[in-house]
Structures are given as structure tokens and as C-alpha cells.
């Protein structure tokens, strides 16, 4: 047997880029940008760009550290087996060093350019995902995605604070919206890839508590998300454009969640409702935050 067969192939820039989880980063960048644009006050375009770049780079660093730590787990799962580390295209130490460099660099630049409060929140978000979720929660509890959902909820808070320099109720609500959205979004995915998680011993909710309990909790979280997403309107922080859109989008999200949550079996359609909920959950978050920015613009123009 050729002894070089087990050695990692030379990694190129695409492998390093893949470590940042670019599809996930898209949502991170978008919600961070929306938090920045919806915040009261103004910010120099260069500083705004720097803030969003730091959010993106920090998220990429956390993702790289996640894949460094979970390389063996990823190798055992069909949907992650072709990532750079399990596919043997990169040394694990390269991914680790890349992750630390991106993480540390993003926090330092954010602090120097935008202030140390948004930099501290960015550092917390990286630590939350790379350590609290990846190392501590994910392999130990089926509530991993519930508690760990905070990791992906920080970007709009960071963007808001980069403009205002302080934390108020509104950016906290934006954080809580994503925090509450994460369980039904991720559990919908977990329902149709649960065999992967079971194979590698990750205690995701469908694996540990079963499909019925997971479906019920998806419905509960979707029901709680509906009034929470409309809360910025209720407290007068947004106008009717956002409020009506939040209620309509929330009702659609709840309806799709009900189709998943009230199922007692998986008939001939397999996991079609679960896949539809997962796909719509992404559209939901993009649309909700886009409307938040549109509402802010309409208010500035005196249209509402």
C-alpha cells in the first residue's frame, strides 16, 4: 500500500474558503448588515464596510475552528464527508491556525476601527460557536442547538452596536428573533439527516428524543417566534411595514411548522414538509431582516 495515500493533498484557496462555510456566512453577513442599516444614527461607509467584513471574517474563523475540532465527526457524515479535512485535502493544523488567525484578526480590526464594545461582542460570538456550541454542547445534549443558537444570533447586534456604540432593547430583540428561529430551522434539517447524526453519536433532538418530540418542539418554537418577531413593532421601534410583514411571514412559518409538528408518521411523501420548512425558514429570515431595513428607509423618507 502506498504510504502517501493517507497524506493530505495540497490545499488551495478554495479549501480554505470552504472552511469558512460560505453559505452560512451569507446569512451572517446579511443579518449583520441589516442590523447596521436599521440602527439609528450614521456611520462612515468605510467603517460600515469594515464592521461587516469583520463580522464575516470572524464567522469564517469560528467555522474553521468548528471544522478543525469536528474533522473526525464530519468524516462519518454523508453531507460533510467532502469538506477539506475529512476529504484529506488539508492538514488539521492548517485549519486550526487559519481559524485562529481569522478570529483574532477580525476582533482586533473591529476594535480599532469600530470600537471595543462591538469587538467584544464579536469575540463572544466566536467563542460561543467554536467552544460553547462545538466543543461543549453539541456532543453532550439534545438541547445543543437551542442554547447554541445564540452563536448565529449575534451579527445584527454587532452591526447595530457598531453604529450606536451601545446596546438597547431593539438589537436585543433582533438577537432573540434569530435565537428563537434557530431550533425549528435546524431541527427541520435534523429530521431528514438524523441517520447521519446517529451514526457519529451526536445527540441531536430527533436521535435522542425521537421524531414526535422534535416535531412538537418545532411547532412550539415557531408559535413563540411569531409574536417575538412582531415585538419591534409592538414597542414602537419600527413602523407598520415591518409589523405587517413580520406577522404575515410568521403566520406562514407557523403554518409550515404545523404541517411538520402535527405529523405522527412519514407517509409516501417522505420528509417533504420538513424540507419545505427548512427551505422557507431561510427565506423567512432573509425577508424579515430585509423588511426591517426597508421599514427604516421608509421612516427616514417620511412615508410612514
Write the layout of secondary structure elements.
Layout: H1 13-19, H2 22-38, H3 45-69, H4 71-75, H5 92-114, H6 116-137, H7 144-148, H8 154-164, H9 169-192, H10 194-200, H11 205-208, H12 211-234, H13 240-261, H14 272-300
Helix pairs in contact: 2-3, 2-8, 2-14, 3-5, 3-6, 3-8, 5-6, 6-8, 8-9, 9-12, 9-14, 12-13, 13-14
What features would you describe in this structure?
The protein has 304 residues and is mainly α. The protein has two domains: 10-166, Tetracycline Repressor, domain 2 (Orthogonal Bundle), CATH 1.10.357; 168-304. It is built from 14 helices and no strands. It has helices spanning 13-19, 22-38, 45-69, 71-75, 92-114, 116-137, 144-148, 154-164, 169-192, 194-200, 205-208, 211-234, 240-261, 272-300. Helix 2 (22-38) packs parallel to helix 14 (272-300), helix 6 (116-137) packs antiparallel against helix 8 and helix 13 runs antiparallel to helix 14 (272-300).
Amino acid at each position: 500500500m502506498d504510504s502517501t495515500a493517507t497524506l493530505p493533498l495540497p490545499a488551495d484557496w478554495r479549501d480554505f474558503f470552504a472552511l469558512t462555510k460560505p453559505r452560512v456566512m451569507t446569512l451572517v453577513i446579511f443579518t449583520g448588515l441589516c442590523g447596521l442599516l436599521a440602527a439609528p444614527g450614521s456611520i462612515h461607509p468605510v467603517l460600515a464596510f469594515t464592521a461587516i467584513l469583520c463580522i464575516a471574517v470572524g464567522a469564517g474563523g469560528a467555522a474553521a475552528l468548528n471544522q478543525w475540532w469536528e474533522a473526525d465527526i464530519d468524516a462519518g457524515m454523508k453531507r460533510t464527508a467532502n469538506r477539506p479535512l475529512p476529504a484529506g485535502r488539508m492538514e488539521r493544523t492548517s485549519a486550526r491556525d487559519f481559524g485562529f488567525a481569522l478570529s483574532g484578526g477580525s476582533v482586533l480590526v473591529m476594535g480599532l476601527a469600530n470600537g471595543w464594545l462591538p469587538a467584544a461582542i464579536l469575540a463572544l460570538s466566536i467563542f460561543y460557536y467554536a467552544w460553547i456550541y462545538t466543543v461543549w454542547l453539541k456532543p453532550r445534549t439534545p438541547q445543543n442547538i437551542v442554547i447554541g443558537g445564540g452563536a448565529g444570533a449575534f451579527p445584527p447586534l454587532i452591526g447595530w452596536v457598531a453604529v450606536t456604540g451601545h446596546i438597547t432593547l431593539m438589537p436585543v430583540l433582533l438577537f432573540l428573533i434569530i435565537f428563537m428561529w434557530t431550533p425549528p430551522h435546524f431541527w427541520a434539517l435534523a429530521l431528514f439527516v438524523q441517520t447521519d447524526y446517529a451514526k457519529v453519536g451526536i445527540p441531536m433532538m430527533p436521535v435522542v428524543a425521537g421524531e414526535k418530540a422534535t416535531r412538537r418542539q418545532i411547532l412550539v418554537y415557531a408559535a413563540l417566534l411569531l409574536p417575538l418577531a412582531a415585538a419591534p413593532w409592538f414597542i414602537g421601534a419600527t413602523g407598520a411595514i415591518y409589523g405587517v410583514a413580520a406577522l404575515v411571514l410568521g403566520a406562514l412559518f407557523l403554518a409550515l411548522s404545523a404541517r411538520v409538528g402535527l405529523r405522527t408518521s412519514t407517509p409516501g411523501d417522505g420528509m417533504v414538509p420538513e424540507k419545505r420548512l427548512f427551505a422557507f425558514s431561510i427565506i423567512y429570515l432573509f425577508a424579515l431582516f430585509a423588511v426591517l431595513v426597508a421599514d427604516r428607509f421608509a421612516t427616514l423618507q417620511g412615508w410612514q
